[in-house]
Amino acid sequence: MAEPLYFQWQNDVLCKTIYPMREPKLRDFLVYYMEVDLWKQYKDKDISTLKADVDAYTKAQEDAAITAFKTYSKLRDYFFVKDARPYYLKFKPINEAELTEINNFHAMFSQSFPKDVRGEKSFVEGMDQFWTNHRNVQRDAVKSKRRRVENMDPAHPKKAVETQELAAMETVTLPMAEQELDQLRALLKTYDKIEQRKLAWYKLSKGDPNSLRVPSEAEFLVQYKPEAPVTVRDIVWWKVEEYKASLETKNQYQLLEEIYQRFKKEPKRFPYWLQYMVVHFSGMRYASAHGSWADPKDLLVRLGAADVEKKAKALDDAAVEKLCAEKIAAYEKGQGVVPKLARATEKQWKDLVAMHMLSVKASGPKTRRNGITALLVEEAKYDEYSLSTEEALKKLEGMKAKFPAWAWKEIVKLTPLRVTHVTDPNWEKLTPEEEAERNSQTAMEIRMVMDAWENYDSSAWRDEHGRTHELIVSRAVCNETAEHCQHIRGILPPGGLTPKPKWYSTHEAEKKLPGAFYTKPTSEKDYVQGASIFWLRFVDKEPNDWQIAKDVKTKSGVGILPTVDKKKKADPKSPTTPWTYAAGEVVTRSRTLVDPQTKVKTQQKQWLRWIHEATVAEVAETADGMTVITYETALPDGDKGTSAVGTFKMPLSWHLDDGPEDTYNRSFVGFVPEGQVPMEHLKTMLDWNRILRKKVV
């Protein structure tokens, strides 16, 4: 019998929808740290002592040359195929219009493919852009159709038809366009390994006509001939590629097994926050966590409050007076049935009890009725809020039969019940029939409860995660991912990007947390593990209050903008005037653009905003130089434009560079030392018996 499911990424349907890049990001984590370890192992070695490695490297390059040519030839020849129908038979039914577009694309590709190898790569890049534009048209069409369907009245006569059309666009038309783009980009990627060899053959073939026989291109490309002596860096790069290839066929559990061995071997290198994030967030989709979770206990409270009020309303005055006397005895003397609320120690609850007891002890029957009703509601609330998450979920499961199908679907979507209850890939959307039932007159009472519950506080996940450290969100953007990291470090930073730089600089100034700092980084020493990195960027749209960059200076006086050269003069040959900066509560810049053809002038205005946040995992040297490994969100190279959460790396030099003026990219680092790490909660969240769903030695 299969082990039970403990976390949402263990549910196959949820893994596909919530974690579209699950395995690639788990692999990235392993590969990036292997790069560090291999360079550390080899960097001080003399290549003359590495004969076995050199021989193995040479043999691998010989094999790689053959594989690279075969892969290139297969992909290139695919685009010479006139009718691609056999490659799209898995789509049922095939969209004939899209297949025609694909076949026309193949015809254009084969007719225009360069005869001169020097133009091949640029030609394929151009075709990639052409088909990307086509794919984007299909993607926009899906978005437009989805918005239309979602906004249609459930009773609209075309609702069912257009819903089917949307399904066909989402499952056939767009995937066909994306499959073609995947093939094209796979071909483009082969040039990384084959282009230089193709150019070398071309140069050889155009040499002295009286020289010895020049091999055919195919013969030449499958031969490996090193252009320079093998170096230690070559060995390390090769070993990294070999390791990367060894991970390609492994599923998430096999990858997690390797990750677990790393964590067990070097626990100090991989603090609990990083372990938690790698296990539970790697590959998660990029979208705001707001509205992805609602408190199941709050739903129980809302459902219970209505029942309590109904029962209290049914009491006559004598019953109310008797109940008031019982409550006075219970709360003031501890006599009779003492509610859990009477023993509450939290000030907010004690204050509520005191306020309601004034009414319970009043002489007027109407006031007493109002007071006892309010007190009974608070008792029910306290009972529900005292439950653990698991207890609350079990209670809701026991009530499943009482909910209409649409309401239960929404409860599952917004709570950890999705782990064991989701089986449908469309678990986040109501069907047209469910929408109609939700909007019906008969569903008004439960609909009002559900709306109030779902819309009470879209950012409630933040406080809940900071308190319980459970995996409750199904998506996250950059600052939200960073906030999860800090919660596991025992830190509760403010939400959003705008307040955080000031929050870090204040901690540095107050000196209540020794070691806290906020700085403009100048070397690898500034990238302390667990620190937040914040980037600035100018954008064309005015940012909201959670993004806008307000000037925060470092201890040494460095602000969000460099010193502006006020004597900077315009380039008379440029159609663009220099940027003019306006600093204040909000930093803006503007300039005049002149169309070189029409000479029409337009004004361009930009706002400075905090654009991104990442958390430092490690700074180390690799064969490519000093590298910063971070845990963050980004747009990886996924051809489908899928954003993901996970481990990333960039050269230290990139992190330290502000970039050119037009693409300003200044960054700052903020750090506070770890607080009280939630070890009790992590016993569950980092229980490898649960993570791997088997007994772990």
Question: Key terms for this structure?
Answer:
single chain; 697 residues; alpha+beta; eight-stranded antiparallel sheet; 8 strands; 51% helix
Please characterize this protein's 3D structure.
The protein has 25 helices and eight strands. It is of the alpha+beta class and 697 residues long. Strands 1, 2, 3, 4, 5, 6, 7 and 8 form an eight-stranded antiparallel sheet that branches. Helix 2 (22-42) packs antiparallel against helix 8, helix 3 (51-78) crosses helix 8 (232-247) and helix 20 (460-468) packs parallel to helix 21. The radius of gyration is 31 Å and the shape is globular. The protein starts with 11 loop residues before the first helix and ends in a 6-residue tail after the last helix. Among the domains are: 45-250, no CATH class; 296-387, no CATH class. The protein has helices at 12-18, 22-42, 51-78, 96-112, 120-151, 159-205, 217-221, 232-247, 252-265, 272-281, 296-313, 317-333, 347-360, 365-385, 389-398, 405-414, 418-421, 432-438, 444-454, 460-468, 478-488, 499-510, 652-656, 679-685, 688-691; strands spanning 517-519, 532-539, 580-582, 588-594, 601-622, 625-634, 644-651, 667-671. A hairpin with a 5-residue loop joins strand 3 (580-582) and strand 4 (588-594).
